[in-house]
Amino acid sequence: MREQSTSNQNILKNPPLLISILAAIVVFIIALLIIEQRRNIKITQARFELATEMKRVNVMFNDFFSDMYSGLAAITRIIDDKGNVHNFDTAAKEVLANNRRLTSISLIPGGTIKYTYPATNHSALGKSILYAGSKEEAAGALAAFKSKKIVIAGPFTNFSKRESIAARLPVVIGDKFWGFASALVSLEDLLKTSNVKNSDSSQYGYSLSYLSYINGKECFFLGNKPADGPTTLEEQMSPINWKFYITAQQSSFSLFWLPSILSLLGSVIVGVSMKRTLDKTFKLQTLVFQKDRQIAEAQKEFKAIFDNAPIGFALINQETRKFSNTNETFRRIFGLETGIFPEGNEPVAGTEEIFSDILAKINEIKDDNAGQLSGDYKHVTKQGDEIWTHYKLFALPAPADQNRKYVVIAEDITEKLAAERKLKHSEKKYRYLFDESPVALWEEDFSEVVALLRKNGMMGKSEDEIIEYFTRQPNALASYTGLVKIKSINDECFRQYKFNSKEELFAHFPKTLVQDSNLNTSKKILAAICNGKHQFKSESLFYDSEGKMRTCILSWQVIPGHEENYDQIILTTVDITDLKNSKEELRKSLEKLDHQNKRLLDFSYIVSHNLRSHASNIQSLTDLILSSQDIEEKKELVIYLHKVVKILGSSIDALNDVVTINADVDVSQQQVKLREAVDKTVHVLSDKIRQKEGVILNNIPKDATIFHNRAYIESILLNLISNSLKYSKPNVCPVVSITYSQENSEKILTVNDNGIGIDLEKNGHKLFGLFKTFTHNPDAKGVGLYITKRQIEAMGGRITVDSIVNVGTTFKIYFK
Asked: Would you call 616 exposed, middle or buried from its count of C-beta atoms within 10 A (0-12, 13-18, 19+)?
C-alpha cells in the first residue's frame, strides 16, 4: 500500500506525466467513440445491403414458386369431374413451356405417380410418394392433404436421383380426395439462378434450412446456422417451410478490435510524445529561470561560462566595424592577445586583419534582422600556421535608435578537415588493399533483403524456422536472393573462377553456381540475418570456367557501422579444394598406415609366440645333447634337433612372406585378365595336378578383367587351387571349378572344389589365422589362407567361404 501511495504521489508531483496520461485517456475515449460510431454505420450499411440481398433472393425464389403455382393450376384443368385425365402429355408440355423454371410435372392419383412429364422422369411412374419415396417427401404430401392447400416441401432426392423441391396440390373431386398434382424444381437450378452460393470470394454467407414435417426440427441443406450478430439477418420464407439466413463477410475484429488496438497504440504514442514535449517545456522553463537567476546574481560566472565556451564567440559593432567582445576560445583560435575588452579598445590583432573579406559582406545581412552569412575561413597565424574555421555571422536584434551588433560564431575545423583528408586517404588505402588482396573479396549490399525480411515479419525467428520456410518456398528464396547487390569485386575473384576479367565472371556467374550448395548457403545467410548475426562462415561449392567443381570457405562479415541495414558486407571466398584433397589423401594414408601397424603388431605377437616355441625346443634338445653320455642317444637327439631347425627355417620363410605382404603400403595395380592368370597358375601346378589326377575347370570369360595387383592375383589363385589339390578326398579325382560373375558393382571370382571340406562351425573362426591348422596333413602350415586374405583386403576386396565336410568348399572373392 505504501509503495502504491508513493507511486500515486510521484504521478501527482509530475505534471507532464499526469497531463500526458489524461491526454492519452481522452484521445483513446474519443477514438473509441469514433470507432463505435463507425462500426454502427458499417453495421447499418451492412444490414441495409443484407436486406437488399435478401429481398433479391426472395424475388428470385418467388419466381420459381410462382411457376410451381401456375403449373399446378394449369395441369389440374385436364382432370374432369369423374377423375379422368385428358391429353396429359400435351398439357404438361405446354405447362413446362410456359413455366420454364419447372423440371417436371406429375399427376399422382391416390398417392401413386401415374402421369409424369418429361420422359426423363418416367422412372417415377408407378411409385408411391407416400411409401416408395423419402420420409420427408411423404410427410410433405400428408401436410398438403391435411391442409387442403398447396404445400411446397423439400429439398429431397426424387425418383430420378436429383435434389428437388416439390409443390403438391391436393385434388378433391366432390368431397372425395382424388390425389395430388405435383410440380418439381431442381434445387441446383434454384440456387444457381438465384446466385446463392458460398465461396471465399463471396460478399455474403448464405444458409438455408427447412422445418421437418416429421419432427419439426430445423435441418440445414446449405451452409450452417450462423451465429447471432448485428450483421446476420434471417427470414421465415413463404410459401415454403424454409428459413433463409444471410451474413455479411465482415469480422468484428476488423470493425472494432483492430481500430481499438491501433487507437490504444496511437493514444500511448500521443501520451508519450506529449510527455516528452512537456518534459522539454518544463525543463526549458526551469533552465530559463535558473539561467535568469544566475545572470542576475552572478554576471562574472556568466562571463566565465561565455569565455570558456568550446566554440568561439565575438561581437562586432556595426558603426566601428571592430570587435566589442570575444571569448577565450575565439582568441585562442585567432591568436588575439587581450581578454574581454571595452568598446573601442581593439586588440593587437584588429578585426580587419582577421575578417577583412567577411566584413565587406555585413551589408548583405537584411535590416529586418533576418538572414545570416556562413562559410569556411582560412586564417594564417603569425607563426605561419593555417587555421581553418567554420563561421556564422548574423545580426542581433536592436532598437532602431541603437547601433546594431553582429555575432560571429567560429568553430575550429582544422582537425576535422585533417581527419576528412585522412579518411579519404584511408578509403584509398582500403580500396587498394581490397583490389590487390590475394583473397577473393566481394563487396555486397543486403539492405533491400533486410527491408523485405522486416516487412514480412521474418526478423527474430529461429534459424530452423527460417531454413524450413525457404525449403518449402523456393520461389520466395529466389525473390530474396535476387535483391542482393554486388557493389564490387577484386581481381582475385575472377582469377579464382579462372576467368580473364570481372566482366567475363559476371557474364557467366549463374553457370558457376552449384544449385544445392548455393541454396543451402543462401538459406543459412538469411537465417543468420534474421537472428541478428553480423558474421557467417560456411563451406560452399562452385564451378570454375572449366566446369570443375571446387570447394571454398565462404566468410560473410558486416562492416562495423553498417549493422542496422546490412548495406556494407564483405564476403570472402577461399578455395580449399587442393587442401581438402591433400587432407583426404593424408587421411587415407594414415588409415592405411594405422591398419598396417595393427597388422604388424598382431604379427609380432604371433612371431614372438612361434619363435619362442621353436627356441624352447632347440634349447631343450641342446641341453639333452650336452647332458647325454650315450653317443647313439646324442645322434638321435641331433636328428631331432635337425628336424626342429628345419621346421624353424620353414616357419621363418613363411613369416618372411607374411612380412612382405604386411610391409607393402602402396601396391601397384593394373588390369589383370583373370582367365590368363588362371591358366598360368594351372601351368605352374601342372605336376601336382598330374600327381592328383585332378581336373581344373577354367570357366572364366576371355574378356573378364579386374583392377588389381597381378602378383597378388597369381598368389591368391596358387594358394586356393593348391589347397583344393592338397585337401582332396582320398581315391577321388579332385575337381576344381573356377567361375566369374558380377553383382551390382562388385566382381566375383569363385573357386569351388569337391575336397574334404571344412567344419566351419568348429574351425571357421581360425580359418584365416596365421599358423592356424586344423587337419592332420603334414604339409599344412597355416600361412596360405592368411596371406590370401591379406592380399585381397590390401586391394579393398573381401573373401567368403562356404563348406560342407566331405562335400567340398567354395571360396568367393569380391573385387571392387
From this structure: exposed
One-letter amino acid for residue 41 of the chain: I
Residues 645 and 671 sit within 8 Å (Cβ to Cβ): no
Strands (E) across 709-807 are located at 735-743, 746-753, 798-804
Contacts of 379 (CB under 8 A, 6+ apart): 333, 334, 354, 386, 387, 388, 389
Tell me the C-alpha distance between 303 and 411, whole Å: 19
DSSP label of 407: E
Residue from 561, 472, 480 nearest 526 by CA = 480
Of 30-44, 136-150, 593-607, least confident by mean pLDDT is 593-607
Dihedral angle computed from the Cα positions of residues 117, 123, 129 and 131, in that order, rounded to the nearest 10 degrees? 170
pLDDT value of position 750: 92
Distance CA(456)–CA(564), nearest Å, equals 17
User: Quick one: how far is CA 726 from the chain centroid?
Assistant: 67
d(CA 539, CA 546): 21
Alpha-carbon distance of 579 to 559, in angstroms, equals 29
Cell numbers for 213, please give them. Answer: 414435417
Number of H helices and E strands in the chain, helices first, is 24, 26
Nearest to 239 by CA among 359, 152, 332, 299: 152
pLDDT, residue 349, reads 45
- DSSP strand pairing (386-395 vs 670-673): unpaired
Closest by CA position to 232, among listed 195, 204, 203: 204
Cα separation, 242 vs 219, whole angstroms: 9
CB 56 within 8 A of CB 148: no
Distance in angstroms (rounded) separating the CA atoms of residues 643 and 638 = 9
In angstroms, the first-to-last Cα distance of the chain is: 86
Structure confidence by residue, pLDDT tens digits, 599-635: 565 455 445 544 554 566 677 778 778 887 778 777 7
Distance from C-alpha of 152 to C-alpha of 65, rounded to nearest angstrom:
8
597 has which bridge partners? none
CA–CA separation, 369 and 378 (whole Å): 27
Neighbours of 105 (CB within 10 A): 27
Give the number of other Cβ atoms within 10 Å of residue 480's Cβ. 23
Paired strand residues for 575: 552
Instruction: Write a three-state SS string for 317-349.
Output: ECCCCCEEEECHHHHHHHCCCCCCCCCCCCCCC
The number of beta carbons lying within 10 Å of the beta carbon of residue 516 is 9
pLDDT value, residue 770:
57
Q: Is the peptide bond before 397 cis (omega within 30 degrees of 0)?
A: no
- Return the pLDDT at 357: 64
On the question of pLDDT at 739 being above 90, the answer is yes
Distance of alpha carbon 458 from alpha carbon 396, whole angstroms: 55
Q: What is the full DSSP assignment across 140-199?
A: HHHHHHHHTS-EEEEEEE-TTS-EEEEEEEEEEETTEEEEEEEEEEEHHHHHHHTT----
pLDDT single digits (tens) 3-19: 555 555 555 556 777 78
**Per-residue confidence band for 37, with pLDDT thresholds at 50, 70 and 90:** confident
Distance from C-alpha of 740 to C-alpha of 757, rounded to nearest angstrom: 22
pTM of the model: 0.36
**pLDDT tens digits, 96-146:** 888 888 889 999 998 888 999 987 888 888 888 888 878 888 888 888 888
The mean pLDDT value of the chain amounts to 78
What angle do the packed helices 474-481 and 463-472 form, to 10 degrees?
A: 110
515 by DSSP, 3-state: which? helix
Secondary-structure percent of the chain, ordered helix, strand, coil, rounded to 5: 50, 25, 30
